[in-house]
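Notebook, p. 212. Picked up where the previous page left off. The plan for this session was modest: take the two constructs that came back from the sequencing core last week, fold each one, and keep the raw output in the notebook itself so nobody has to go hunting through shared drives later. Recording the first one now, exactly as returned: residue sequence, then the structure token string.
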Amino acid sequence: MALASSNRVKISIAPETVPGTADANFYDNSTVARLTGESLNGNLSYINSEEIRSDRQLTDLVQVSLEASGDLNIELSYGSYDDLIESLMGSTFSTPDASYSATATVDANNTLNSSAAFSALPAKGQWVKISGRTNTANNGYFQVSKTVDPTSSIITFEGTPLTIDATSESTTIAESAMLRMGTTDQSFTIVKEFSDTSPVTYFTFVGMRVSSMSLSFSVGAILTGSISFMGQTYTTSTTTPDGTLGNETAASTTSVMNSVGSISNIWFDGTDAFAAGTFFSNVTLDVDAALRMQNDAIGFLG
């Protein structure tokens, strides 16, 4: 029996236009995934025949069901998993407005007030970076109110993060990209390639949707996590999938994140936890898309 090295496995992922149908040019439209491990597999279910035989043997072991599922284990890095996070959330990241400045004061009720109209406006609940204030307590990352719409001259913020400052001075706002929960389905074809087997073996999973994600933030550790998939079916072959092998988009090269340099603060309901003297050694973030596996239909396996 040939043994495959874990360092020679490659996971390539491409979005599907038709759920459950692999792209006709898979390798030209796929991206190589960054991972620390994986458990993608096809799970077959069998039932024993209940025929009674005089020789006391089983007549048959019948394959009756198949499902595709599994996890990618990861170290979090910027931009490497955006398409998978979008699938999990059923939405797409917004395109933030370019940074804009206005002469403004910081008034009561945690509002930024401009004597002239802001050239753009953030959305409710969006995180922004404020800079340019002489009072540095009002520079940093803040969340726009989740309930009060910004107006052309007033932006209200969530919680009580700002310090009243009647000085009218140029204030710059930089918006973040934003992702909200939605209902848009996005499935993927995933090919798991064992490069050191002879011949090379390909496991192709289709109709794969992101069902959940878990991230772990711990002191003295890299930000690790897992992305879980639930899908339709899979096949095993020694034939190269469609498209041109080698044309995949290379895996990103952004730095792996950690719990020290990659996290600047933790907020609770608009309150700066660090400023309040609250600190953490471990935090986990779990998001579940609440997908459910649907049983096979008559005439279909998977």
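Okay, moving on. Second construct, recorded in the same format:
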Amino acid sequence: MTENTFVCSRCGEISSTDTRCLVDEEEVCELCAEEETVLCTHCGTRIWRDDNAGDEDTPLCQSCYDRYYTSCDRCGRILHVDDVYYEDDDEDAPLCYDCHENHTHGRIIQDYYYKPTPIFYGEGERFMGVELEIDEGGECDHNARSILETANGSGAEYFYCKHDGSLNDGFELVTHPMTLAYHQSEVPWAELLRKAAELGYKSHQAGTCGLHIHVSRRAFGETEGQQDACIARILYFVEKHWEELLKFSRRTPRQLEQWAARYGYKEQPREILNHAKKGYHGGRYTCVNLQNYSTIEFRMFRGTLKYNTVMATLQLVDRICDVALFLSDEEVKALSWTTFVAGCTAPELVQYLKERCLYVNEAVESEVEL
């Protein structure tokens, strides 16, 4: 046996080190690895088939299963924690989508954990999903149905409704993921917001409501490393321009501390991301929530039934994503708020920045937020 060969611990054959696989510190040949091992779906670690904590379709090491996965309480299907549903908020009985649908069929306002299979609208990689909380008009299926008939009147399925325990007497309107262009050109946002107001709902004025925007992680690159680099720049931008974004959000510092806390400024983008990944105490109640498997969530913004504000918020998030994608760490660090807003051209965003006195000190009269 030479330096370039080894003895397989399973079959005893001598093989080239070029084909060697390590499994629990055991050296095995390529053939034995193929027959007796699998790769963990989540972390990529090679494990023995007998130690597979998942199933044939979703092999998992025990650590990843314990941290990121569970099994449907009814059919036994392996589920990522982001894809779990619950019946009547019973967190001890996780369900897959199909089993959950069998229970919730016929409801208009679904429970908090409801998550249908996403329908993607538009072309590209940067999809945005919106969660808009509305309150004080009743948590009743009749009103929800009326709003959805307006929102989905074309026969598409743009929106669905969910219960939200943070509201007094309302519910949450949620979109499927869409590109910004699709939100702007195809979705009847103005009509939906008008219908909600006609039915007595409030959002900004309720004081209980948020406007949350999810952005697909795939928008920031194909690999985890590419995505992390962009997300780090987003976190840095938010921390550096916290005061301006606080003003944009229409929230109070106390509200943000409760529902969208900051991570804290650090000198380098990666330092903020590393701090966030270490389990920051805010959990998902942070300015940019990183706990979702396939999206990041911007949580800073106060709810609204004003069309221009909804569009401006989407456009702001889109512009921040552009900065993170197309500028380097050093360029983001050097970027001033004035330079940032000077590059904002979307009319709704420019109008809103002027209303909030955030656009080159130019103020204009604005309509009342609802």
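Notes on construct two before I forget. The two ends are 78 Å apart (CA to CA).
Flagging for discussion at group meeting.
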